[in-house]
């Protein structure tokens, strides 16, 4: 037997030995640490426009998020394994310290004393966000494993639900707090706010948390750790570059990164199959609960991010909420998610089984996506709210119950690596889901806009027709965070068009007045022949005779009549322009709603794949305290 297969000697059962007050303090500290990581994924989004403006770094806008994602995703399985070897406490504390250092440096980005070392302020922010991600990976990967260490399997569900709720809560608080701090204090406090929360979490963990070690003392798989980074980072970069349009999917850069990632994966599998204590033990995949569970979480990660991202874009582009308000407009989804996470965890603890609730949650998720696939330009907001709640109730059970299932199925000393692997697969699913859904958006939206604008162009005034010809090119070129809005601002367009019409008719008045005042009917006829002159006005000008403008009084009377005709023509042009622009705004809303509804049709398939992956999972009973000691995951019995 290898170290991964053999129960370590002297391993402490913390679920049995720790009293509940100590567990509660450990739980508070761990939740605070997890809240830090979850909050940082949402609080920065509302501050980014101001940061970009102050640091003059629009070209690096998306990299502020990408750098964090790359670092946190690649390190998750590594931290999980290290926590199995060295204990949860030192790894978690290390992660919080790194995260806080990164937060402090992010807050100082652009300060003069840093410019000489790291270059531009925006580049500093990208580097420091990557450092934050390195710390955040420890928080997310270790936090869920701590629950399995200090609570018996049957008790874990209700606490895992709390951890799922933290992510939902952060998605509500983050945009609100980020906007408040940016508008009222400084964008730097979006990062500095992490410091007091992190220090409180550190205090709880340092003073109250035991080491939570598995008892393993194997050799560290350095090569495996390196290869998982070489596999994941190029793959994430290739997907990001392809999704946001930085490079074409068939470009040498993207294809080269895919090739490097594939080669690293092959080497990783070879190394892991021979190391005595691999970063990701391949033997775990012989465990049906783990194998099917991480596959299901991969699909759920893709579906979850697609739900949040494209629902926000729908709310901005179709429902007309502001970009800042879009973060809070998804509160109904978040409330459903929190209710689903906490409720499913509580039920799992009471009933002792989790699979039925997983399947019910996935069916609800499919139903929520099905409802969202019916969205159109006229869907009432309250109806959208109902759909969001249904989807949230379906998504809620995913995070806690899959963690619970995986932790219950593996050996106690494998909980860290198994839990972090699930998180790793979910985050990978999110990145791949963003790329796939972004590709659908890019491929579908321009065609939809062109199709909806075709009848508008045909009926549009000549002055607007040329402008409408190029409007489909305003569709975003990717679906990632920071994709531009394609909402058509009808009010602004009307104001702009009105000014253009007024300027055009003002020039026409001058031309007609000058021509009439010459007393030369040929000059008037030349103005009448201009293509810029409306048809009715042209007929009026062509009817003017030489005797009518032969005297000053006659010319004055003609100018008064022509001016009245110009006013009527201008009013008609403005009315026609406003009608056309209203139809353009409607066309954009219909095009975007149709595109988003198709993305949610694909989301139904993704959720269905998660359901298919969950069906073969064994329905293991969650044993009470003291049951099944020494057995894998505390396994007590198997149903079905």
Automatic annotation (TrEMBL):
Domain Major facilitator superfamily (MFS) profile intervals: 26-534
A Pfam family recorded for this sequence: MFS_1
Major place of residence: membrane
GO cellular component entries: plasma membrane
Topology versus the membrane: Multi-pass membrane protein
Region ranges (Disordered): 621-640
Keywords tagged on the record: Cell membrane, Membrane, Transmembrane, Transmembrane helix, Transport
CDD domains: MFS_Azr1_MDR_like
Transmembrane segments: 25-48, 60-79, 91-110, 130-152, 159-177, 189-208, 220-241, 247-270, 290-315, 321-344, 356-375, 381-402, 599-617
Keyword match Membrane: yes
Subcellular location: Cell membrane
Gene Ontology terms for molecular function: transmembrane transporter activity
PANTHER family: COMD, MAJOR FACILITATOR SUPERFAMILY
Protein name per its UniProtKB record: MFS transporter
């Amino acid at each position: 037997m290898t170290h991964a297969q053999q129960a370590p000697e002297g391993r402490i059962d913390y679920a049995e030995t720790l009293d509940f007050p100590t567990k509660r303090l450990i739980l508070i500290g761990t939740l605070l640490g997890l809240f830090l990581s979850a909050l940082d994924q949402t609080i920065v989004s509302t501050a980014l426009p101001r940061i970009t403006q102050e640091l003059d770094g629009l070209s690096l806008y998306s990299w502020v998020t990408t750098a964090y994602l790359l670092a946190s995703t690649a390190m998750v399985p590594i931290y999980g394994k290290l926590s199995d070897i060295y204990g949860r406490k030192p790894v978690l504390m290390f992660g919080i310290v790194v995260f806080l250092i990164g937060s402090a440096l992010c807050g100082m980005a652009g300060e003069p004393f840093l410019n000489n070392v790291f270059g531009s302020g925006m580049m500093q922010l990208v580097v420091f966000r990557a450092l934050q991600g390195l710390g955040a990976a420890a928080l997310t990967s270790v936090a869920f494993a701590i629950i399995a260490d200090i609570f018996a399997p049957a008790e874990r569900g209700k606490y895992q639900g709390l951890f799922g709720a933290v992510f939902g809560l952060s998605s509500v608080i983050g945009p609100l707090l980020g906007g408040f701090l940016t508008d009222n204090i400084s964008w730097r406090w979006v990062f500095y706010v992490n410091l007091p929360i992190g220090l409180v979490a550190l205090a709880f963990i340092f003073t109250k948390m035991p080491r939570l070690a598995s008892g393993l003392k194997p050799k560290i798989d350095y090569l495996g750790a390196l290869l998982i980074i070489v596999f994941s980072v190029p793959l994430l970069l290739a997907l990001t570059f392809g999704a946001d349009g930085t490079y074409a999917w068939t470009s040498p850069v993207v294809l080269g990164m895919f090739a490097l990632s594939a080669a690293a994966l092959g080497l990783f599998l070879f190394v892991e199959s021979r190391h005595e204590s691999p970063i990701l033990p391949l033997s775990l995949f012989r465990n049906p609960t783990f194998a099917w569970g991480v596959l299901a979480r991969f699909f759920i990660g893709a579906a979850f991010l697609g739900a949040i991202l494209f629902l926000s874009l729908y709310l901005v582009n179709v429902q007309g909420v502001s970009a800042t308000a879009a973060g809070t407009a998804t509160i109904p989804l978040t409330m459903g998610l929190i209710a689903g996470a906490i409720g499913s965890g509580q039920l799992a603890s009471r009933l002792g089984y989790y699979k039925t609730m997983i399947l019910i949650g996935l069916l609800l998720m499919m139903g929520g996506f099905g409802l969202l696939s019916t969205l159109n330009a006229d869907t009432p907001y309250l109806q959208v709210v109902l759909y969001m709640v249904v989807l949230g109730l379906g998504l809620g059970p995913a995070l806690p119950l899959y963690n619970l299932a995986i932790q219950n199925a593996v050996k106690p000393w494998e909980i860290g690596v198994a839990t972090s692997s699930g998180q790793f697969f979910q985050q990978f699913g999110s990145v791949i889901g963003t790329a796939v859904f972004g590709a659908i958006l890019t491929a579908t939206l321009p065609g939809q806009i062109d199709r909806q604008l075709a009848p508008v162009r045909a009926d549009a005034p000549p002055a607007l027709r040329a402008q409408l010809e190029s409007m489909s090119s305003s569709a975003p070129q990717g679906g990632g965070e920071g994709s531009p809005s394609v909402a058509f601002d009808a009010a602004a367009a009307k104001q702009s068009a009105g000014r253009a019409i007024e300027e055009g008719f003002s020039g026409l008045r001058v031309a007609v007045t000058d021509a009439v005042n010459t007393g030369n009917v040929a000059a008037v006829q030349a103005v009448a022949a201009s293509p810029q002159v409306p048809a009715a006005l042209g007929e009026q000008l062509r009817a003017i005779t030489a005797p009518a403008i032969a005297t000053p009084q006659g010319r004055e009377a003609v100018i008064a009549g022509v001016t009245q005709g110009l006013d009527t023509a201008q009013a008609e042009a403005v009315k026609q322009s406003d009608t056309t622009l209203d139809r353009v705004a409607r066309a954009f809303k219909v095009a975007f709603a149709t595109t988003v509804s198709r993305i949610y049709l694909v989301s139904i398939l993704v959720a269905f794949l998660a359901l298919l992956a969950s069906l073969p999972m064994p329905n293991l009973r969650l044993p009470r305290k003291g049951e099944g000691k020494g057995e894998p995951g505390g396994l007590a019995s198997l149903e079905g």
